[in-house]
Amino acid sequence: MTSSSPWTFHLHAVTWLVVLALGLAYADAVRRTGGASRRQIAATVGALALLLVALTWPLADLAAHWSLTALVLQRLLLVLAVPPLLMIGLPPRLLARLTRPSAIDAVVRRCARPPIAVAVVTIIAVTTLTTGAVEAQGSSVWARSALDLALLVAGLVLWTPVLTEVPGTDRPSSLGRAGYLIVQSIVPSFLAVVWIFARHPLYPHFAHGPELLSVSPLMDQQIAGFVAKFGTIAVLWTVAFVSMTRAQHTVTTGGDPDPLLWSDVERHLERAERKERRRRAWLPPSYEDPPSPPERTDAGDTEPRPTDEP
To answer: Could you state, in order of their start, the residue ranges of all structural domains in the chain?
Structure first.
């Protein structure tokens, strides 16, 4: 239920408990797999902190009931900030273990392909911003939670082709990653252009509510369009530029900008083993590999001919 004031405090106790559980699970998993570096721990702590910012008071309440701009800011955190930090925070052994199950590995492998990643992110970004979805997230906690989870999944898919931490993925080259990020900054956020140039509010859920900070619903929608467009461009283009700069520096110093990692080799070997087990599972129990044909000594002959020597 919407409160009379956008600044009324709400604890969001369930969100705090979920984030605390994630932190404890991470600490236990890291302990079992041999520890994590300071960079990885800092990335995980940052991801959990940003998750709290996005899903608790005041941003979550403003996004649910009062402001499209607040909803956009929340989405930017859930798609562009939290997922990459979570992925960077996972030690390689832990990430390999989490992505080892065949179903998860198959999904990750396909989502690492840039065309598929762009399509998945665009579909989730557009469907979660339909008027029905926005209305649902403002009136149902369960719908809001489902949409937040979908956005986190979209963020994981978005960053999978870029980050080298995911084992066994066919990552594009440095130039390819930069081009992919530029495409991701343009295609999924095309609705922002519609918001900027629309002559009336497009979301009744926000249009019929009271003004926030004396900003009309139409102005709030236009601000949301600018924030969505330029916020996405600023983040993704910066990452693309840094990626290209690092690759150029590596080439200049005589290194390989896209080296083959041992985790990739292990994952390909695991896939080969799974494929062989599936092949044998479909064979009848009495099946044996056919014997190799006898060595041919002459064209058309399978047995050696006797000689005429006494």
So the answer is: 13-268
